[in-house]
Design goal:
- The chain contains 9 helices and 43 strands.
- By secondary structure, it is α/β, with parallel strands linked by helices.
- Among the domains are: about 1-160, Leucine-rich repeat, LRR (right-handed beta-alpha superhelix); about 235-345, Ribonuclease Inhibitor (Leucine-rich repeat, LRR (right-handed beta-alpha superhelix), Alpha-Beta Horseshoe); about 600-615 and about 630-725, Ribonuclease Inhibitor (Leucine-rich repeat, LRR (right-handed beta-alpha superhelix)).
- The strands form 10 sheets. It has a 14-stranded mixed β-sheet with strand order 1-2-3-5-7-9-11-13-15-16-18-20-21-22. Strands 23-24-25-27-29-30-31-33-35-36-38-40-41 form a 13-stranded mixed β-sheet, covered by helices on one side.
- It is flat.
- Bound molecules: 2-acetamido-2-deoxy-beta-D-glucopyranose (NAG) (5 copies).
- GO terms for molecular function: transmembrane signaling receptor activity.
């Protein structure tokens, strides 16, 4: 009782008197009426420990905090507003906010955070608004938000997310608004948004989604507004949008060339649809949304002839306001869609609509195989036994038993799919008039030879698929005439040598697939440096490589190198001396029994992911990983014969370590590793192989280490006395809970890809043609 009244007196005093100077930290200004402490732009490296306990608003903008450690706000339990914008924060340790059960608004925007850990936001049980925009987040670990049951708004815009795994937003039981704009998202797992039953608005604009993520979106039962602008989608198929409550859908600035009239048939409440700034030339009346009031077609090249008439008619009858203007024909150009009457929308007699709108084109005359009946999406000019779609600019003759490359595709064709035919041989100039072609598919065509100049004139070709053929070698001029080629697939052929001279004609090559060929040696020094200076990914898995010459792999651009499943007997250190930017190296499935000291030294500045599984490795030098430091994120040595393993404590950036299926000898010599395992926050499985009585048991779970003589390991005493170490042990207990997150790693792709991947146009085309 006594104590209680003393506290009240103190509180009353503090509230009624101006805050004493000593109560307000030196770098800060304090306002006792609003209980605000502001320490803005003071280059502080720590949260001032003397901030008064009763502070409710704490403004720490523009400082230099870098790491928010556990319990960083322990002394200010009454905070409701916390602003940590632009504080140079790189990492939030688990438990940093654990004492802040009253905070309603937390601003962490404009920092440098890369990963959201499972318990980064633990304790923020009243939080309503969380801003994490303008960081560098590339990974969200499952469970990161489980404690935020009251959160309303979550801003994750302007980060580096590529993929959203299943269930990451689990626990956000009251979320209304989720903002994921301006990331690099190209993939959303089907259950990415599972559990968000209250979400009403979702922003996914400015990402790299190539398809509408139908399955994922269908889970969002309450969403009414969806922003998807600025994603590179080319087509929306039937039932793409299946969202029962959706009213506003924004799909502007995409690359839509076409959409099914039933694309929105499962969005019955849709009232506003924004399709502005796409590549639509026609649109059919949309079936499904009965409440539609506004359809925005601004900035599309709408061609106002008879094929737009049904849409115009439908808009008039159903009261849909059409926004946008005609792009042609000349007498209607720039005429607002809303102003043209159905009678104005005519086709010239005797001309098919496509001829009508493409009359300026001079194309070689080839008799159409399908007679042009009066449908807008009709194929007009197309070789026999093929299908051409002039709207999507796709042509396919896939699996039709062709033995020669057909001729006479529309000059504007961008994607040509010829896979599964029997060409055997590609003569020179096989593709006349294909200057617009971007993607050429020649997989599984039994091709054993490509004559020099076969691709002549393909000056826009970016993607070439030659996988699953019978190529034994390549003519040095095989790729002449396709200088922009960027992605080349040659996997599953019979190439016996690295086709260096053929590839040297491809200065723009970035990704090269040569898996499952019969290449046994990379002999020539300067093999890669003679190619263009852009090659970034090289896949040589499953060849017969036994030897790699020094200098063969020299390249400033190479970032991913897969040498797995070959016959290398040692780590090719000598060949990696001049690959300063190599980030990912896969050596799994070779027969490297011993890894010597400094094996990866040349890669010490760059290497992030190293795979050495199933190599029959019996020994690894304790200095094998010397030089590698905080850059290394992933290390796998699964399924080897290792009994010992070197100390990993210098690899402070490790996130994934896989030591499984090694017969580790569980005696005192393993103690440093075991200690390290206890010390770090990552999921790690290692089992004992020796001695027999411990076989199969987890290294973490056994007790033999207790009897190890301490004097063998001098650091033991130090760590027992060092409070820091104790603390991180507590951390490690916590981190054991992080289950399976290592498998939910985000696949990081180069942020800016020069061109979209080839997948979607192909699917687009299929959907269209099968329609
Ligand atoms: C901020 O502090 C860091 C070290 O704590 C120092 O290197 C830097 O120069 C300081 N910046 C300013 C603007 O004072
Ligand atoms: C239609 O789209 C254009 C271009 O994106 C935009 O400026 C305009 O505001 C939109 N109109 C409506 C009514 O949404
Ligand atoms: C790869 O090498 C092995 C032995 O060196 C040989 O038996 C096999 O035929 C080779 N494979 C190919 C595809 O050349
Ligand atoms: C590395 O190579 C192995 C063996 O070929 C393969 O199973 C694994 O998927 C590869 N890992 C990566 C990340 O490429
Ligand atoms: C455990 O972690 C602490 C602090 O990060 C470090 O100083 C110590 O060397 C580590 N101990 C081991 C055995 O890795």
């Amino acid at each position: 009782m006594q104590i209680f009244s003393a506290e009240v007196v103190l509180l009353v005093l503090t509230l009624s008197l101006p805050v004493e100077a000593k109560k307000c930290p030196r770098a800060c200004s304090c306002d006792s009426t609003t209980l605000t402490t502001a320490c803005v732009g003071k280059n502080l490296t720590d949260v001032p420990p003397t901030v008064e306990e009763i502070t409710v608003k704490l403004d720490l903008r523009n400082n230099n905090l870098q790491v928010l450690s556990r319990g960083a706000f322990m002394h200010t339990p009454y905070l409701t507003y916390l602003n940590l914008q632009r504080c140079n924060i790189i990492e939030i340790k688990e438990g940093a906010f654990r004492t802040l059960g009253r905070v309603v608004s937390l601003n962490l925007a404009h920092n440098k955070i890369e990963i959201l850990y499972q318990e980064s936001f633990d304790g923020l049980s009243s939080l309503k608004e969380l801003r994490l925009d303008h960081n560098r987040i590339e990974e969200i670990q499952p469970g990161a938000f489980t404690q935020l049951g009251f959160l309303n708004t979550l801003a994750l815009t302007h980060n580096q997310l590529v993929y959203i795994p299943n269930m990451v937003f689990q626990g956000l039981q009251n979320i209304k608004f989720l903002r994921l704009s301006h990331n690099s998202l190209n993939n959303l797992a089907p259950e990415a948004f599972a559990g968000l039953f209250t979400l009403s608005r979702l922003d996914l604009d400015h990402n790299e989604l190539q398809f509408f993520p139908t399955q994922t979106m269908t889970r969002l039962r309450e969403v009414t507004r969806l922003h998807m602008n600025h994603n590179p989608m080319v087509y929306l198929g039937e039932d793409s949008v299946s969202m029962a409550k959706l009213t506003h859908l924004y799909l502007s600035h995409m690359s839509l060339q076409d959409l099914s009239d039933k694309a929105f048939s499962q969005a019955p409440l849709l009232s506003h649809l924004d399709l502005s700034h796409n590549h639509l030339r026609y649109l059919e009346p949309l079936s499904g949304p009965r409440e539609l009031t506004s359809l925005n077609l601004t900035g599309n090249p709408i061609y106002c002839n008879c094929y737009m008439s049904p849409l115009r008619q439908w808009a008039r009858v159903s009261g849909v306001k059409l926004l946008g203007a005609c792009s042609g024909p000349p007498h209607l150009s720039d005429e607002p869609l809303q102003a043209v009457s159905p009678q104005d929308l005519r086709c010239r007699r005797g001309k098919s609509p496509v001829e009508d709108d493409e009359e300026e084109e001079s194309t070689e005359r080839v008799p159409p195989t399908v007679t042009a009946t009066a449908k807008p999406k009709q194929k007009v000019k197309c070789p026999a036994n093929c299908e051409c779609d002039t709207e999507t600019q796709h042509a396919t003759c896939e699996g039709r038993g062709h033995t020669r490359i057909p001729r006479g595709f529309p000059a504007k064709t961008q994607l040509l799919d010829l896979h599964d035919n029997h060409f055997h041989y590609l003569p020179a100039n096989s593709f006349p008039g294909s200057s617009q072609l971007v993607s050429l598919h020649l997989q599984s065509c039994k091709i054993h030879e490509i004559e020099g100049g076969a691709l002549q004139g393909m000056k826009n070709l970016l993607y070439l698929y030659l996988s699953d053929n019978d190529l034994v070698s390549l003519d040095p001029k095989a790729f002449a005439g396709a200088p922009k080629l960027t992605y080349l697939h040659l996997e599953r052929n019979k190439l016996a040598q690295f086709p260096g001279s053929a590839l040297s004609l491809l200065p723009s090559l970035i990704v090269l697939h040569l898996e499952q060929n019969a290449i046994s040696k990379l002999e020539t020094s300067g093999l890669l440096s003679s190619l263009g200076s852009k090659l970034t990914e090289l896949y040589l898995s499953n060849n017969n490589l036994t030897y790699i010459a020094k200098g063969a792999l020299d390249s400033d651009s190479l970032s991913t190198l897969h040498l797995d499943s070959n016959q290398l007997t040692e780590v090719p250190t000598h060949a990696l001396v001049e690959t300063p930017n190599l980030q990912e190296l896969n050596l799994s499935g070779n027969s490297v029994h011993w890894v010597g000291p400094n094996a990866f030294q040349p890669l010490s500045k760059s290497l992030k992911r190293l795979y050495m599984d199933h190599m029959g490795m019996e020994k690894i030098s304790k200095d094998a990983l010397l030089g590698l430091g905080s850059e290394l994120r992933t290390l796998t040595v699964r399924g080897n014969q290792l009994e010992e393993f070197p100390d990993l404590s210098s690899l402070t950036g490790l996130e994934t370590v896989d030591l499984q299926d090694n017969p580790l000898r569980c005696d005192c010599f393993l103690l440093p590793l075991r200690r390290w395992m206890e010390n770090v926050s990552l999921e790690l499985t290692a089992t004992c192989g020796h001695p027999p009585e411990l076989r199969g048991q987890k290294v973490q779970g056994i007790h033999v280490f207790k009897s190890c003589p301490e004097n063998i390991f001098p650091q033991e005493k130090k760590s027992a006395a060092d409070p820091k170490v104790k603390k991180s042990k507590a951390d490690s207990l916590k981190s054991r809970k992080i289950k399976a997150q290592t498998t939910a790693k985000v696949a990081k792709l180069p942020r800016k890809q020069p061109q979209r991947k080839p997948g979607p146009p192909k699917v687009t085309k299929k959907k269209k043609i099968l329609k």
